[in-house]
Amino acid sequence: MKIVITKPHWQVIALGILAGMRSMSAPAVSSRMLNKRPSRRLNHTPLQTLQSPAAANVLTGIAVGELVGDKLPTAPDRIAPVTLVGRCINGAISGAGIYKAAGGKWYTGAVLGGITAIAATYGSFYLRKAIVKQAHLIDPVVGLIEDTIVLGAGVALVETA
């Protein structure tokens, strides 16, 4: 059975969760979704850029770089204030684009995406720490599992667009 997410609020919540897990995944996925199904509702707005093939490619490249960078010992905790704000912004921008493209108010999508990103940031941070401790795995292994979840969810969202 294939799960299809068609309501924009569910798509925005899913993007917020992705932003909490891997900050650049949400803009990359939302840009791919909007590139696949462009909306005239985004024309003449700053969100129009998300629909372009160039934006989709650049954001995807940055997201792939983040997957690698997350494994480095110098990577900051996702709950550090600067990274938390970035995740919130990425969730908000992604949510605004999807919600506006679907005919809703951009600010509703922005608030929903941003709040979900913050909640998912803390949830995924503490879940990852608990899994590392309980399963006696090294952090990068759990990070790879998390990457797989993010990639799978991202592909599923783009396919349902």
What would the keywords be for this entry?
72% helix, 161 residues, DUF4126, elongated, mainly alpha
How would you characterize this protein structure?
The chain is an all-alpha fold and 161 residues long. The protein has one domain (8-68, 76-160). It is 72% helix and 0% strand. It contains six helices and no strands. Helix 1 packs antiparallel against helix 6 and helix 2 (25-36) packs parallel to helix 6. The radius of gyration is 15 Å and the shape is elongated. The model is unreliable at 1-5 (pLDDT under 50). Residues 12-156 form the DUF4126 domain. Pfam families: DUF4126.
Layout of strands and helices, then pairs:
Elements: H1 8-21, H2 25-36, H3 53-69, H4 81-101, H5 106-135, H6 139-160
Helix pairs in contact: 1-2, 1-4, 1-5, 1-6, 2-3, 2-4, 2-6, 4-5, 5-6
